[in-house]
Each structure stands twice: as structure tokens, then as C-alpha cells.
Specification:
Two copies of one chain form a homodimer. Chain A folds into four domains: 164 residues, 3-Layer(aba) Sandwich (Molybdenum Cofactor Biosythetic Enzyme, Chain A); 59 residues, Molybdopterin biosynthesis moea protein, domain 2 (Alpha-Beta Complex), CATH 3.90.105.10; 97 residues, Beta Complex (Molybdopterin biosynthesis moeA protein, domain 3), CATH 2.170.190.11; 98 residues, Beta Barrel (Beta-clip), CATH 2.40.340. Chain A is 16% helix and 29% strand. The relative contact order of chain A is 0.13. Chains A, B: Its EC number is 2.10.1.1. Chains A, B: Its cofactor is Mg(2+). Chains A, B: InterPro entries: MoaB/Mog-like_dom_sf, MoaB/Mog_dom, MoeA-like, MoeA_C_domain_IV, MoeA_C_domain_IV_sf, MoeA_linker/N, MoeA_linker/N_sf.
Chain lengths: 440, 440
């Protein structure tokens, strides 16, 4: 049997970053940058004001005190966006708004709170054309210097970055309205099995709703792919072979990967195995993992990578997670395609198969944990896997399906918050044992 | 000044879960379930086989041994999806595939590996119409019992769950092709400022590219909203007021929230403040936070909540994160709308303002940390904030902008991996100090 890590390496070897495409800024969100982005000019482009106030020569106001303010002539009024370049000569000041370029001659900004436009007796009063400065400011005070953020030519974004809002903003700030990114993979998902009917249709004895094509389509979409969902397909090897060849040939639109479920074990009706038996590029290999031992992998003649996953829903889900998802992320251009494995501690006891790694759906063990939320699964998910930490900071977890770990428990799978990865050498997990978990 | 938490509470008070809508399974991905989903029937519906093999009466094979196999008549061939219900009488067996219903009379499944179809001398040979069982099986062996996964009527998904792939699969498995979810918020984002020009257009002195509308549009989209991006709008209070009223009235399509940037501080050109000065539902309040002190908040006459964020890019970004994002998640129907705050330790030193909380963009302090990736930002992001842990498991962080924390550093913001929240009482952060960080 092939080891878990060996098969992961084989699946990653099928994936290369997809071609690049230039897209508008917002369309780059969630995609992976395929270029370094440099700023053609310094950021900020000019020394500019960090405050609303008055641009002054610091030397002019060195002696300013609240009871002896310095009076300066106001020679200009610089709104943000103004292209005025008034000279601030000794004794002069320019009214300036946050972000406006500091005019020639000025070397500091006095915040408006430290000024008035006149004093009459003890009260501040208007004085057309002049400002009274009540306190001194240091040279450079409240001035944002040109190049503070980046010098001309500096790289502000690097190829390989997953584009988020701050990347979009940085690109805009250097004058870019488009970005070059790797395009999304388009993935065809095909479920197989004569027992499957589309969800919502009536069932007779022996039939069950197809859930795998929906599971895998959703998982592929969550992994950043566009998805073509097909199935359930009948247990007809010739027809399935024609469909897979048609997908490979682009007859349903170009696809970058094909994922099937079902029909890969040792039974008499293993349609995927039969359909691909004569494809030299595809191999069926047992992998030392539970669930998910029967796996198929390879390329169709047109070059499309194909993953044939087992049909039990939990096996499909865990196989996608550890074998397909990293490959899709690699196609998107990401370098680091593994979820972080977080140290955890078992709060439960279960046995694991001899000689096989185990992927066990788990939940946090704290009593208040809401099984309806999935920590870390989406940026928008507010749940906190840190809430059920042991004294040493590790999260305590138990099985998501305490009555059993059967790979058919599709309803229970929805409560899982992560997968524990138990190495092949372990035969029993006991409360208090150290585990590695990734939140899904 | 209003405290950070008080203003957060005020912004959340503007947000209520949006109306529900029934969508197809895949379209529910990433939305929040607005109904409990129960299974109308037991899952599995029938006792069914967990293996490819033979359905038998366990008592018939109790004496089976490899050197003395028990011969059973094969009375049926049950593929998955078969609606056959053959009676398995004493001495009989039914060939059965994984997932097929266990026929009446049978109480166990013998895996195909433990059978043969005949023995001739020492070798296993075909024997039409019969099977040889080499080992005994316990009653119930390799049978998945009806109701194992869920009993009829059991709730398998709860309202409030963020729909992920496993939820989609569970819904399909109980026969649902649609789900009732809260619809996404539609958010209008408006940047303001005479100094702003669309990114990519030529700049004259005093002008800069608009980055805020792109930043906020991307952040709103990442928070699960559909976005109408507008701007840059000129510093014309009457025109801006007309635009905001038109948005509130649905003239640009229905919007559930409006977010503006810029024009809210104490200067002479604060267009948003001027535009909304006469709107009784909107208040401008200083908030004890750095950056992001000038905030406006309220409802327009048509009921649309409006957030007016400051215009410095870092202020806009952090204000969106702590004030707008939780409200959008609440509109989506999520209950837990806060990102987890993770204990961390400072690897850097900086001062913080007296009497104001500070939101400091930070990066992991390990030397190998790649500033191009954002841990935890998207499900698809493989980076690991756990990589730079201190000895006690806490992540060490330093400022993302070590030369300064100016709120104009938009290019630098792209390297930030999270925000440290420094309470108002702290005036100086020193290496080794405990921090709370959320990864963005």
C-alpha cells in the first residue's frame, strides 16, 4: 500500500499553476498574484500634511506661546487635491488640509487646534488673512514625507500573494487598475452509482440521494475552483468512459481537473475502475489511510488530471481534503497548499486501523461548542477553535461521530469542525493523547 | 469620547439578519442557514452492506473454517440500487454490493475476501450458484443499521450554521435540493475626496489614486456581501447628499448598507460630515481608538444603515474590520460575528496613544514569515500563524510598518497579517508584552 504522504506527493505532482490572466482589481480578490507589483513613483508622491492646519516655517513659530501667539499671513488655502504651489516665505503660512502637498518653503504643519485667527482680549476672534499660532512645532511635525510608504521602484506586492483587500488597496495606490493573476481552475465533478438519484426526487428501495457530487462541487468551489457538477452517472463503464473522455477533450468546456466519486473498490460493479481500466495514464492504488483506501489518480490522454475518489461520503470528503484540495490550490498558484496542523489533545477514545493513517472528523470538546459552525472554514466564520484549549493552550477534541466512525455517516459529517490526522503507527487513541488537527 | 467596545455595540445594533431566500444547494455555500433541516426518514433508510460480499445468516457460517468452508446457495445478486428483496433462507446467501439493502432473513455480511465460489483441491475455483465461506462472522457484521446516521425526524442541520460542503452534502442526503438561507447583504461603498482619481488615470500635483473604494469593496465582498462600488466622489456636500439619499431610496438597486470613506474629521472640506449634517438619524462621534477616531454612524430616512469611515487608508481598513464587518456578518445571519482574538507576544516596541485603544497592523515575527500571504484570511490560504510561536505556544508578532504606524501607509498595509488590539490603558508596548491579535 502507498503511504498517505506518498500519495499526497503524487497528487501534487499532477498540479501546476494555471496560466495567468489580467483582471480588474476587484476580480483579483481571492486569486493569486502572478506578478510583482512595483510603484512607479514614491509613496506618498509629495511631502503632505498629516493634519488639517497650517503649513509653516518651524523657525517662524519657535517662540509661540498661548499668551504670546505668533501671527502669520495666510497666503493660500490648500485643499486636498489642490495643485497650488504657493511659496511660504518667512512670516507666511498656508492653510492646508490632510493629504495636501506641503508647499515650498514650509517645513512643518501646525494642527488647527493649536491656532486661531485672532485674539481679542482673552477670546479668539476671526482675523481675515492671518493665523495666530499658540505653540511651537518641530521641523517636520505633522508632515508625511514623500517615500515614507515606498520609494519609487519598490516592490509593494509579490507574485504568489493571495490577493486580499489590502493587496487590492496597495495596487490601487500605485495606480494599478488591473492585476495579473493565475486563473481559477475549472473542475468537473462526477458522481457515479446506480443507487443514486438527484436529491429531492422520490426514492424506491435501494436508492439514496446523490450527495457526493454536491459535496465535492461545494468543496471544490470553496477551494477556489469554478465547478461543473455532473451526475449521478449510471454504472455503465462504456458510457462513463465516453463522458470522461469528452470532459478531457473539452467538449463540456475546458476543464483543468476531473474528480469522480464511487466505483473504485474491489466489487463487481466498480464502474470508474472499469471505465478507466484501459487508460494508461491512470492508476488505481490502495493508500494506507482510513477512510479512503481505494484511490485512483492520473491523466487522461488530453492531459486532464483525474482523481477517482471512493464513494462513501466521508471517504469522499476526507479524500478531497487531503488529495484534491492541495492540488487545486497549487493550480491557483499558491505555494503553501497545506492547512496548518494544530497540536490538539484527545478528549475521547477510539481505535485506529493497523498500518494505516486515520483521518478522523472531530469537534471541539468544550460543552458549549456549537456544532453548527465551522471554525476557520471561511474568512467570514466567527467561531473560535481556541475556545476549548487545554491548560497548555492545546485544543481538546472528540470524534464528530461518537457512535462510530463509519464512512457512510454523511449527516454527522456536517457537525465536524476539523480532521485529526492519526499516524499509521498508532492503534488506539486515548483521552489525553496528543493529536494533530486541521480545521476544515 | 466613545469607547471602542461601545461603538462596536452601536454599529451592531444597526444590523439585523436579512430576509431569507430559498436557494439551490450549491448557491447556499457560504450563506447562513435560516431553517433547521430534519431528515424525513432514517439515515440510512435500510440496513445495508458496508462491504462487497455476501449477505448471510450468521448462524449458517458459525462453523466455517478455511479448511472446512461452508457452502451456501446464492439466491440473488444485489447491486447497489437494486430494489430486489430476496428472502435469505437457511443455507442461502445473496451476493451484495456496498450500500445495497440487506435482504430479509440475512443478518450479516461476509466480505468477498473471506469467500470463494468453490474449492478444488487446495485452490479456489468457480462454482456456479454457490459461495464458499471460509470464516464465521458475528451477527450484524458489516451491516450498517438503518438510523445509524440519523433517526427519522432528527435535525441534521441547525439554523445559524454557515453552510459549507459538509452541510450541502447532509442536506442532499436527506433529499433536499434547496435550502432556506439569509440572503447576502448588498453594500454600497463610496469614497470621497477631490484629491482622488481612479487608479490608472494620470495624476497631477496633489492628486492620488483612489484606493479606499477598492479596499472597502474588497473587504465587503470578503465579508460575504455583494458590492456596489462608487466614487471617488467630489467634495460637494449637496451632490454627495443627493447620492446617499438616492442609494437609501433604492435608486441604484436595493442596498442594505452604505459605507463611505473620507470627509469626517474637523477640517474645512469634510464633505461627508457636511452632507449628512442635517440627517437626524446620523451622528458623528469621536471614538477612543487609533487609528480611526472620527466615526459617523446611523440610518438614513429610508432606513439604510450608514457607516462613515475616516479616509486615511489604514483607518478605513481597521474601521471596516472592527465596526462594519461584524455588522455585515450579523446581516448574513451569523450569531458569532467576532474574529477570534488569539494570545500573542510582542517582539517589537512601540508607543500607543493615551486614553485610546490601538489597532496595530502586525506580522508574525519569525524570520521566515512570508509577508505575501495572509494567515486565516481565506479558507484557501495555506499560511500558518502558528509557525512563529513562543515557547508557551503564543505567536510572536511585530509591527507591519516598523518605520512608523502612519495611517497613510497603504502599500505597507498589504504586508499585515493581523491586527493587535492594545487596550486604552496601555501607553507603551515592549518586547515580551502579552497582546491579543486577530488574523485578518
Amino acid at each position: 500500500m502507498r503511504g498517505l504522504d506518498e500519495h499526497r506527493a503524487a497528487t501534487l505532482a499532477l498540479a501546476t499553476p494555471l496560466p495567468t490572466v489580467e483582471v480588474h482589481l476587484l476580480d483579483a480578490l481571492g486569486l493569486v498574484l502572478a506578478e510583482d507589483v512595483a510603484t512607479p513613483e514614491a509613496l506618498p508622491r509629495w511631502d503632505n500634511s498629516a493634519m488639517d492646519g497650517y503649513a509653516v516655517r518651524a523657525a517662524d513659530v519657535a517662540a509661540a506661546r498661548p499668551d504670546a501667539p505668533v501671527r502669520l499671513r495666510v497666503v493660500a488655502d490648500l485643499a486636498a487635491g489642490s495643485d497650488d504651489e504657493p511659496e511660504v516665505t518667512p512670516g507666511a503660512a498656508a492653510r492646508i488640509m490632510t493629504g495636501a502637498p506641503v508647499p515650498p518653503g514650509a517645513d512643518a504643519v501646525v494642527p488647527v487646534e493649536l491656532t486661531a485667527t485672532a485674539v481679542t482680549g482673552g477670546a479668539w476672534e476671526p482675523d481675515e488673512g492671518a493665523v495666530l499660532v499658540r505653540e511651537p512645532v518641530a521641523t517636520g511635525a505633522h508632515v508625511r514625507c514623500a517615500g515614507d510608504d515606498a520609494a519609487a521602484g519598490d516592490t509593494v506586492l509579490r507574485a504568489g500573494a493571495l490577493v486580499g483587500p489590502a493587496h487590492v488597496a496597495a495596487a490601487a495606490s500605485v495606480g494599478r487598475s488591473t492585476l495579473v493573476v493565475h486563473r481559477r481552475p475549472r473542475v468537473a465533478v462526477v458522481s457515479t452509482g446506480d443507487e443514486l438519484v438527484p436529491p429531492g426526487e422520490p426514492l424506491r428501495r435501494g436508492q439514496i440521494p446523490d450527495s457526493n457530487s454536491w459535496l465535492l462541487a461545494a468543496a471544490a468551489r470553496e477551494a477556489g475552483a469554478d465547478v461543473l457538477r455532473l451526475g449521478p452517472e449510471r454504472d455503465d463503464p462504456a458510457a462513463l468512459h465516453r463522458l470522461l473522455r469528452a470532459l478531457d477533450a473539452g467538449e463540456h468546456g475546458a476543464v483543468d481537473a476531473i474528480v469522480t466519486s464511487g466505483g473504485v473498490s474491489a466489487g463487481a460493479y466498480d464502474v470508474v475502475k472499469a471505465a478507466l481500466a484501459d487508460e494508461p495514464g491512470v492508476a488505481f492504488v490502495p493508500v494506507a489511510v482510513q477512510p479512503g483506501k481505494p484511490q485512483g489518480l492520473g491523466r487522461l490522454p488530453g492531459g486532464t488530471p483525474v482523481w477517482t475518489l471512493p464513494g462513501n461520503p466521508v471517504s469522499s470528503a476526507t479524500s478531497f481534503e487531503v488529495f484534491v484540495r492541495p492540488a487545486l490550490l497549487r493550480m491557483r498558484g499558491l505555494v503553501d497548499v497545506e492547512r496548518p496542523r494544530v497540536p490538539a489533545v484527545a478528549a475521547d477514545s477510539w481505535s485506529t486501523p493497523v498500518g494505516r493513517a486515520q483521518l478522523m472528523p472531530v469537534v471541539r470538546a468544550d460543552p458549549g461548542a456549537d456544532s453548527g459552525t465551522r471554525p476557520g472554514a471561511l474568512a467570514s466564520d466567527g467561531a473560535d477553535p481556541a475556545a476549548a484549549r487545554s491548560g497548555d493552550g492545546r485544543v481538546a477534541v472528540r470524534r464528530a461521530t461518537p457512535r462510530g466512525s463509519g464512512s457512510h455517516l454523511v449527516a454527522r459529517l456536517a457537525v465536524a469542525q476539523g480532521l485529526a490526522v492519526i499516524p499509521a503507527g498508532v492503534e488506539q487513541v486515548r483521552p489525553g493523547d496528543s493529536l494533530e488537527v486541521f480545521w476544515t
